[in-house]
Amino acid sequence: MLFLESENKIIKEVLEGRLGEKAPRPVQPLEIRLCDFDDVQYDMSIADNLLTVSMAYPPYKTLEGLGAKQMLAARYPEFQVVAPKAGFDFSLQVNVDVVTPANAASFIERISILKRNIMGAPFEQCFEALQNGNASTLGPVQIPYRRNETIYVLPQADRIVVVYSVCFEDKTDQAIARVFLQEFVDTRRTVNNAPPVAFGKDPPLELRGAPGLRHSPDLVGYLSLAIFPTHVDTTEKRIKAATLVQGLRNYLHYHIKASKTLEPCASRKGPVQDPEEDHHWPNFRARLGKDMVFCRPYDNLELDPHFSVIESNQFQKVFILSIHSIPLATMLSLLSRAQPRARVLRGLRSQFLASSSTSASGEEVTAVIEKKTVPQQQQPVVETTWNTLVVGEIVDFHSHPQADRLNVCAVNIGDKDNLLQIICGAPNVRQGARVPVAKVGTRLAIKEPETGELKKLKIKKSKLRGEVSQGMICSEAELGLTDESDGILIFEDDAEVGGLVLEHGTIATRLKARGISVPTPQPKVTAASIQPEPNQE
Predict the structure, then answer these.
(1) Cis bond leading into 26, ω under 30°?
(2) Of 83, 127, 231, 379, which is most buried by a Cβ count within 10 Å?
(3) What is the Cα–Cα distance from 403 to 118, expressed in whole angstroms?
(4) Is-above-0.70 flag for pTM?
(5) Distant-in-sequence, close-in-space partners of 392: CB < 8 Å, separation ≥ 6
(6) What is the pLDDT of residues 389-431, one digit of tens each?
(7) SS (HEC) of 172-211
(8) Residue 38, Ramachandran bin (φ over 0: left; ψ between -120 and 50: alpha; else beta)
(9) Residue 527 main-chain phi, psi, to 5 deg
(10) In CATH, which of 3.20.20.70, 3.30.450.40, 3.30.1460.20, 3.40.50.740 is domain 9-112?
């Protein structure tokens, strides 16, 4: 896939022609208007030796109070904020004499990424707070960045959760978008240290009951990702993370439109002779009128009645697919057979082929994809012993001497004089965190994300590379609260140390909502509640 750069190429080329190192002097006049993603409009003019840059951006008023105003002062110090032109949200003005051949490239670059800097300001602010350890002091943020679409930024003590509501008016766009977004979730599992990603039709738990939650008939779903301190622990990482997060929706939009064109993904004259010489050979396809040609290695495509072999050699076969009168739904399914990365579409193939005799509308495509991509309910975790799952506090921790990714934690579960030593490899371990602890003897039923099967686990005292572990610090998935999770579950700082996890907050309610049966909490016995037995006499 193509990676979209954050700069505006037109702005860069126009300003290089007026202010660049090789541009004629004195500076020539300029008047230009142009558009960008997300309903952005620019107006740039050079007159009387002054460069004026105006921008119309629907969420600017919201972003101005979320760090954009401070960002403009810090990154554009030579500019003055002047009265905006009619129809624009703000205008910046500067004397062109400040631009020299030495600083022209940097000056032009900053203007070309003006939209990225404004949209990225609240993310950089949150990521910096996460790096400094005070993200929990920030409140949730809603950015209405497109019509009917909102970005929710939810700072937590150990992570920043970013949730996108994604909408498309066209039904086919909606269907393809769901496939792309589900592919993000699937691919993330194969990429080490990537932020956790989740996608679903319903708002994630962090947004349930949130004020101002916007609903649209064109809603595709909610994409959420979690940024941990390890993702933003340097200035370079923080800037890159903000760039990727703010441009994710544009990235999705571009590739959906590009995928609909069915244009060649590579320009070839014929089948390649040796796959070792060209790593792109499996993805080759070309349009020939109403036919499409695919170069593929030996596989079972020839068993499909829609494909015909037109050439073969010792490395591969060349298939031709007639696309005349094939419904869009069937086409998507067949293309998934020829493109290895479209794993989600492969799973839908049988559903699409069943309707190949009739023309499938966008609504039908959407219904089939929704049916396949909605995760199944987790099976009831009947094996979990909740009476030995307690709230603990990580009093201290240090790196495992024999393993870089493991931490040796000292955990208090109610007896400060007898701390448990627990080995944990989660990325969000921190001192003082209140966490769910499975004591030795606890039984857990953990759902395998790949197969959906329940894996029964009994917690035992053990040694991990020479260090004793006396329990387990659990994640939400290990408790049955979600199907997948990255990192341990961290409770509020006022959670009762030593109390049962099942009795904390909304744990029991969340489990019941997922169809997991839990025991009824027993009332706590106090001295006042103990009554003397009646005298038999």
Answers:
(1) yes
(2) 127
(3) 41
(4) no
(5) 411, 412, 413, 420, 434, 435, 436, 437, 473, 497, 498
(6) 999 999 999 988 888 788 999 999 999 889 999 999 888 888 8
(7) HHHHHHHHHHHHHHHHHCCCCCCCCEEEECCCCHHHCCCC
(8) left
(9) -60, -35
(10) 3.30.1460.20
